[in-house]
Batch of 3 targets.
Target 1
Amino acid sequence: MRMQAGDARLSIDCGGASTVAVLAWVDGSASALSFDGLPYLPSALYVGPDGDVRTGQRAWQAAVEQPGRFIPSPRRAVNGDVTVDRTVVEGLALAAAPLRTVAAEAERVAGGPVRDVRLVVPAGWGPRRRTWMRQAAHRAGLAQPRLIEAPVAVAEYLLATGLQLSVGAFIVVCDVGAGAEVTVLRRGPAGFEVLSTLADPAAGGTAVDSALTAALAGGRNASDDGMGDWVTAQSVRAAKESLGAHPAVTVPLRGRAPVVANSAMLVEAALPVVRRVAELVDESIAAAELSARDLAGIFCVGGSAQLPHLDTVIAERTGVTPTVVPEPQLVAARGAADAGAAHAGTAVVVEVPVPPVRRAVAIAVPGFASLALIWQVLLTAEQHNLLNVYRSVSLNWGEFTMAAVFALLACLAAGTVLGSLIAARSPTPSTRTEGGRVSIGILAAVSLGGAIAGLYAVVTSQYFGEPVGPFLKWALWPIAPIVVMAVAMAVVAARQWRAPHGGWSALLAAPTGSIVTAALGMGLIQYSLTADRWPDRLLWIDVAGRVGGLLLGVGLVMALVAPLMFRLILSAPVAVISAAIVSQQAAGILGVSYAVAVAMWWAARLWTRIIRPAPAGPTLTAPAAHAGTPGGGT
């Protein structure tokens, strides 16, 4: 089937050193446009005496006779007029020149004008620069373009090429071209959102070229604006690219004998730039209020992404080994060409998988512990009937409270599962986001857990024929602090501030060891209080009660602290005290104490895992001077 120009999508990435353009078709095929035999258009321009702006090979040829009208890096002065050999040239005309060349080549390949145009822009560009870019596209004769942020385009390309990235995950895109731009992204339900972006125009290939030129020319630096010996600069740039495959190359210098450049010289010239890029990565992660352990990956793209030791220095700085994406110079343009194409005109729905089966243990243990304790409460309560007039019931209020606590913990452990089931059947797509799913699950779990605790109170009061008030008091009041912590967690999840390390299902799982130990301890205490006290069994019954007190004390400590050393230190005094006070009256105190310990456990997890997570390594405060600065592109 013959493709029509109307079926094509044109994406253009205008970098500081070169412009890359990709033409994509509805059948999924795509190819980079070629300019003078190269898969990119050099950014250098030549301004003729009549104001005509030439690009590519024509610019280099014309510059041989009139070097003063040659502009090697026109993007450095895009916001105003430029003076070339005493001639004032509008900056917008310079920006439109490479776009006009790309538009002509795309029209030739597609067989007609391309109406679907996407322009790649730095994430740090504001409305003024974005409007300026649209004006340049209009001046070049392009259709009204859709602006796509470079890191978002890269992330879309990674997804399209097989990267497994769940909703709510964080990645870092390190775009190293003529300069550097580092961006932290979060995958949302319908695309990627930028959390932080930092840029440094001096941390890229241009700085490496300048340092390598100075080394080869005996200390003579290329001028900062690129208007110096551009012939030598071009030779050095070609040598830099060749040193990636060869240990040494010969570099011709204007007005001097050729010199030899080797890999060691390139490493020395690139090292300051590489270190600065690693700093930007670290600072951008800190600016997003994340740590390296929160990341799903760091991905390096751009024309200078293959600088020597870039991945090693970033790994040393952050603890995460970055991935240099194949064909890094084309990635942003390829991603922009496909961005939104598969879902044009339709709502994007991203399903989040239900937590793995092993999470069922975290649900089953507190659930069975709750049922076991409430069953023992019902079977072992002592009913007193004095002359059929005065009736009373003696039961273990501490055990009754712990049954309600375990019921709530079981429901909270099932929170992510509940959220998945609710979101899967919800007609509102927003409930399918990771934060929305978890928030709904927590609120549903709190409601279900509170309802079960209330049901325990009603059923038990009816079973014994007693007023329901005391039962509700012992079932609901002790779990109130846990409910408050859970609701706070739901608010955090709904606002999607941060996904906890290990995922939400792991965060919501209660400490199984503490539950088993405490439940067994309270069961033994109740046995010692209600067992038939035959003379030959008195010793064993008392020992069972003391052992139960010890276990309950250990379970309480396990809920309060996590480090093993602290558990060993605190368990001894707490276990001895709880064993010493075992009695009918003290059982209620022990049960409420355990409920308070669980609430403190939840508060600690909310603080250390979500609000103030411990950093994986040293982080730096992002300097405001670099925030939002446009990157170098490719």
Target 2
Amino acid sequence: MKFLLLSLSFFMLVSSQVGAQPTEVVASVDKNPVMADESFNLTITANDDVDRSAFDPSVLMKDFVVGRTSVSTQTQMINFNTTRTTIWTTLLIPRKQGRFTIPAFNVDGQSTQAIPLMVVPVSANASAQSRDIFITTELDVPEAYLQQQLRYTVKLYLGQDLQRGSLANPSLENADIRQIGKDKEYNEIKDGRRYRVIERTFAIIPQQSGNFTIDGPLFEGEIIDNSRQSFGFFNRSTPVNRVGPSQDIIVLAIPPNYPHHWLPSDYVQINEEWQGDPEQYHAGEPITRTITLTAIGVVEEQLPTINGTYPDNVKTYPDQAETATVEKDQTLIAQRKESVAIIPSEPGQLVLPEISVPWFNVLTKKTEYTTLPAKTLNILPSVNQTASPIPQLKPEVTTEAVTNPNQSNPQTSTVMTSEPDRTWQIVSAVLLATWLITLALWIWQVKFRSKKTLSHTQQIKQPQHSVNAQWSSLEKALSQADKKSVAILLPHFLANILGQSHLTLSQSLQKLGDQQLVNQVNLMLAAQYGQATKDWNGEALKQALRPYLKGATDKSGTSKQSLKPLYPSA
């Protein structure tokens, strides 16, 4: 028994040593010739237990679509003779018709033989069975400019029931490829046979100029095989692989000496929107302007920044731009929205220059401009400013000689005096109003004559109380970092401090001439109307305003900006 065991171990050792030596490696294909859109298997067999990574099919990617590679090993022992085999199976689909050669592969020091392969066009096959599934591709234009959208349509024809399947995207080097729209499904009769068609559309935006080939999409799936008997609820299926035909494309470069931002499109439009009533814009109050740039056949990353210029007498606080890309009618549409808060510092006419965006029309192959015309806004005085009285024109009285001293006809005299004269009505109304005002002033003077000895301190308590009340509200808003309330209360407070209630915020800051206060106010306005909406704190602005609150009263507590009494004491 010991001798038998030793003999068995010896023979197994010898067999394993013999099997470890490199042996023959053979390559073969399961179809030859093969149709241009169908798959076939390349099999590499090595009579040894070889490392799984010893075979690399990447060299075939130039002429074929290289699918998955499966690796299997087999071990057999006959009469103490052990045989090991390693098999690689790779799925290949030819990219185009013609004659090709599958090169020799080096596997573990051994080389395979080269295999000549014939790829025939689909029309050369007379068998309908091989056309159960096929793919067609279509490109809308044979050439396009750099970054211009191409519309690529894929149709998958199914002649049998599909159990499962997946369709990959087409491929193009240095290009943005995305599906647009939803899949369409319908029936179509082709070559006398009814097919179920699944149509899918892609948008391809090349990022490099030159001559390129768009590789067709790969379909991998399984169809139900009715020729094979099924068991129970499980149907027999057959794996299928198809690839769409390639499409050649010429990508034109940007025209030489093109000076603008490159925006190739079929159509570009710019428009604007204004918040609020354009007839009610006041100085010192923010005006929100939203500009929208829309382009067809591009993505949002291609849209340029909208460069708007504004006069020096306004402050602008732009918001962060919003961009988006949507699809409509199998076309990409990109939009860019830019909003800016405009604060005019003085009333009058505010003229905003036109905004022009250049773009390249891919249809006419010319540079065009989409323009937002110049706009003039009528800025009203600030709500704090007293409106100037509207001058009233004196009515012109035209005297006509309508009477004759020598005329004694009473009927004619009666007719002339009965006609209304609006001139005399206006003059009478003015005289009546003047008399009423004079009477009211006389009554007021008699009634309050006894109070003319009122002290100067009592006369100015109300303005100072107003300053203190405004500061109390403003200080509360600053402590709570309430930017909206501060922006409303601050102009009133500064105007009251200066004793000129008609001043706007910009005019008050100009009169004070305090750069530190100006900087803090700008930070507040930027936080209110700009992007920095979270980091503002009102404490610094409060400290900058305190000296002016103290300066509004003298040592006796009276206001320096008081008005003289209407009837000063003698």
Target 3
Amino acid sequence: MKTTDKFLYGGDYNPEQWLDQPEVLKQDLELMQKSKINTVTLDTFSWASIEPREGEYHFEWLDKIFDDIYQIGGHVILATPSGGRPQWMSQKYPEVNQVDEYGRRHKHGFRQNHCYSSPVYRQKTRQINTILAKRYGKHPALLMWHVSNEFGGQCFCDLCQDNWRQWLQKKYHTLDNLNQAWYLKVWSGLYSDWSQVLPPNPLGETKVHGMDLDWKRFVTDMTMDFYENEAQPLREITPNIPITTNFMAEGLDKGDYYPITGLDYSRFAKKVDIVSWDSYPAWHNDYETLADTAMKSAYTHDCFYSLKHQPFLIMESTPSCINSQQYNKAKKPGMNILSSLQQIAHGSDSTLYFQIRQAQGNSEKFHGGVIGHDSSSQNRVYQEVAQYGQKLNSIAEIKGAVKHPKVGIFYDWESNWAFNRGGAFGRPTRLGIQTLQKHYSVFWEQDIACEIINGDDDFSKYDLIVAPILYMVKDKTVDKLTKFVEAGGILISSYFTGMVDEYDRVVLGGFPTKLRTLFGINTKEIDTLYPKQHGHIEFNQKFYETKDYNQVIEATTAKVLAEYRDDFYQGTPAVVSNNLGSGKTYYLATRLGDDFLKEFYQPIIDKLHLTNDFITKPIYEVSCQTREKNGVKYHFLMNFSEEEQEVLTNRESINVEDGSIVGKRIILGKYGTLVVKEK
């Protein structure tokens, strides 16, 4: 696979917007060189510029940009343009446009608004991709393929409905099996003919949980199949050029941040050569500390690293502000370097921006860019971009370095779908991913590396697996977790674990037998608390407040570590441990706060020797992340606070940027960073 020994630095470049102003394109090249930019992503939304009318191609401008980038020593990530099809296609072939859940055919507009089932769109995308691969596949500037852009969306047209039924027939074979899997005797929903099977939609069926779960699986499969259709000619014509597509994060509108939940990235990641994603945390918001934002950003970086357990790429970020939220705050001086270095610290081999030059018009004209509307190299944003470019060059030896976490945070996309879709309990307080992040934050605060793992991963690499709210029971996963514990591992789980099967049907007979053995308990019921209601437990001779959910359990072989102090479950177990083989499990029957989690995890951290041995005393606001390469450990020290911080280390180290010796007392200024190494 083609690669380079430097971190990729640059981003999305849209020269087609400036073809009538050649002096602008000339200036762009000069400013790219000056800021140490070495990589641009081209053609993401250029289809109409390449093929303005069906069969009429104009590549001269793209040829020149390729050559110009190569002349300045740069690389090109070439995107396939399917994320934004040209107007003529929507007009001539209306079937390429999506149909929404109400059965309305969309007109041309926005992005990713196409039907993944459309034979016409599949043929047209393969055609343009084949032309691009043949034309640019051997160009020395081409470094990587970027298939489409930010995959998402779903279509309800007749073609997609036919594919939906075929997908279900392949999975279930008979209607009897489907009726049983979806438990359609409820509300007289039984199918008697395959033609009756429609997607979930607001004009029809919305309450069949198994249907909703399978639809989400189907949408992921259709999206991956469309991606594969695009990627096939690229692989055939340019087998040595790696292929990626940019994954995304979501949740900012609710004050959250995590990988999007609409597509199962744990499966999609198997299709790409390199994981890449678009990173847009809400820095400087008014609802949490900067360090809290950094923790959520770190969790998301770690999730994308964990998909392939190897360095990933940041395909998009911003040097200043974003464009898409209700409030789009600019990054303060120093924040671009700090947030970008966090990407590298958690395993990225790139910092790429959207966009190189700010657009003059249309919907993203105020989204941050390397080159602003003033075209000046003297403005603050550009100056910081150039400073960071120099820093990346100075630490280039780290590129390709890996991580060796001993803590795995377990996350299953399908289980999360089912958990959020289920009825009863507290709808606003489900907070499955947010609960994972609460556990993750304990380790992030102590600079202990984590991976976000799933059921396909090798559990033997970890000493500790944290798996709260493992709502959906999958026998394969339970068997692997049991072997992990029996071999000496420690496993943590919680309320809402083991409640439904892979069809989102409730497991009958209480807690599944294998989980009873694993945790030494049986489960009884769950009490949902209103936001102002709280219970209490006693743990280690201290009282802690419970919230949202109190599960009633009984201990069989487990040892009771804490009991409820309130309500009808007073005196029953709330926290238990269970020995199994050479390992141990813990079960938290209730939702508890940060104060409890810190107290609970500390002896486990001490027993497993998980503490970061480079830092003398961890500070929540200062993150220390480590990557390793050729026997050398590289530590990234990052101050996510508004104040100067003193960092104490157990050993002296070497400043990667200038080779100087760094003592054991380090002062980091506001948003300060330092990259050091030790053998």
